[in-house]
Design a protein that fits this description.
Blueprint (H helix, E strand, L loop, with lengths): L3 H4 L6 E2 L5 H11 L3 E5 L5 E6 H9 L11 H4 L17 H11 L3 E6 L2 E7 H7 L4 H13 L7 E5 L6 E8 L2 E3 L1 H6 L1
Parallel strand pairs: 1-2
Antiparallel strand pairs: 2-3, 4-5, 6-7, 7-8
Length: 183
């Protein structure tokens, strides 16, 4: 079986816990990555910050320019596990199962506590397409979270185009309470 060290990316984008989420977003955008490993002076990973974390902050009406990376846990914005990591000697199947179990797309690679690289689901799929079935379990979990008929969700009304936190499915469309009442 393929080992992590054979496919991991050795260049890892990092951020300080004192950086704001706006700064983290700029680093991600400029480097075309979806996450950053949070490190302090020791180069020992403490956490990760992802695009999803930043989206959650914005969706909750908070200013990413005022929220520090270290505040994500303090303010209970981030609910995922602390830090899931793997060793360069772990095999890809173990890593895939760990990622699915913890609902993460990327994990830092640590050797004796030091950051050596990062591995994402993309690298796994490039070398082991047969693991698509395992990674698809994660997708199935996400799909089950999509609201069904009679449930509500936030977004743009497909009838009037306005935003609502209380969209309801009406036929094939998600509509706001006003458009639903007008039907």
């Amino acid at each position: 079986m393929v080992k992590v060290r054979e496919v991991m990316k050795r260049e890892v984008m990092k951020v300080s816990p004192q950086a704001t989420l706006a700064e983290a977003a700029r680093i991600m955008t400029n480097n075309r990555v979806g996450s950053l490993v949070v490190v302090e002076n020791s180069n020992r990973p403490k956490d990760m910050v992802t695009e999803s974390d930043i989206t959650t902050v914005v969706a909750n009406g908070l200013d990413p320019g005022k929220i520090k990376v270290s505040d994500l846990r303090k303010k209970k914005i981030k609910k995922r596990p602390r830090l899931v990591s793997v060793s360069p000697d772990d095999n890809i199947l173990q890593v895939t199962k760990l990622m699915v179990k913890n609902g993460v797309q990327r994990v830092p690679v640590l050797d004796n506590g030091k950051l050596k690289g990062i591995i994402a689901d993309k690298e796994i799929l490039l070398i082991s397409p047969e693991l698509i079935e395992i990674l698809s379990e994660k997708l199935k979990e996400r799909v089950s979270l999509v609201p069904g008929f009679g449930e509500k969700l936030s977004g743009m009304c497909e009838d009037c185009g306005g935003y609502s936190d209380r969209l309801t499915q009406s036929g094939e469309q998600w509509v706001c309470p006003q458009c639903l009442a007008d039907e």
